[in-house]
Amino acid sequence: MTTPNILLVHGAWADGSSWGPVIELLHRDGFERVVASQLGLRTFADDVATVARDLALLDGPTIVVGHSYGGAVISQAASGRANVTGLVYVAAYAPKAGQSAFQINQEFGIPSAGAGDLVNIGSEQAPDLIVDRARFHADFAADLPAAQGAVLAATQRVTSVLALAGAGDAVPAYEALRANTWYQISSEDKMIHPDLERQMAAAITDDERIVTLPTSHASMLSRPAEIAALIARAARGI
Fold first, then answer.
1. Which of 101, 117, 176, 193 could be cross-linked to 93 through a Cys-Cys bond (beta carbons 3.0 to 4.6 Å apart)?
2. Within 13 Å, how many C-alpha atoms sit on residue 190's CB side?
3. Where do the DSSP E strands lie in 38-115?
């Protein structure tokens, strides 16, 4: 039996290589066509268009996975796509139509532990954000070795506020795919408040498809086996 395609979408301050360990495990599990999108992180509309393009290039049933900000992107990019058969949110934003990642945080009202460590290296008019490199390991990936955290800090992608504050008007993809939408909560997350993740998970899927791991925001790197297994469950509709 042909296995579904897997499309992986990274979040802010990262790139497609953050899925490397998960991709290796999915290949071992028999998933032949696994693709990681590369977002520009400049505007939300451009990132949605990138994922929509990647989806259009994949023939047949496809599971779409989003980490962090990538969850907001897939909610729009996968909307109305007949070939998308399941969604997996990995410590991710799951906005409503017209709602941005920034807006979700503001409405939740409790800042994450790492919120104060964002640094604007752009202009006041067009902020470009990074996570303070001295704080990146503690905030983003505390359960990874310090040396690996230092590499992630050094190679992090600059992310525009225009991306994080952007929103789309389409009905989010999870509305039509609730029966095969999965959410992984990172209980030690310092970039998105774990209670906010629990709130978003409960809004988009049912309890049996919510998995909590005692991990940092970078769960696809610190817990790749569990993330790959969750994606495989979505791919098999179980």
1. 101
2. 16
3. 62-67, 84-90
Is residue 62 within 8 Å of residue 4, measured between CB atoms?
Answer: yes
DSSP conformational letter for 63: E
Largest Cα–Cα distance in the chain? 54
Selection from 62, 80, 61 nearest residue 9 by Cα = 62
pTM over 0.85: yes
Structure token digits, residue 226 = 């569990």
- Outline where DSSP puts E strands in 44-180: 62-67, 84-90, 118-120, 128-131, 159-160
Splitting the chain (238 residues) into consecutive groups of 10 residues, what average pLDDT does each group show?
A: 91 98 97 97 98 96 98 98 97 98 96 95 93 98 98 98 97 97 98 98 98 98 98 90
Domain total for the chain? 1
**How many Å apart are CA 56 and CA 196, to the nearest integer?**
32
Which residue, chain included where needed, has tokens 């505007």?
43
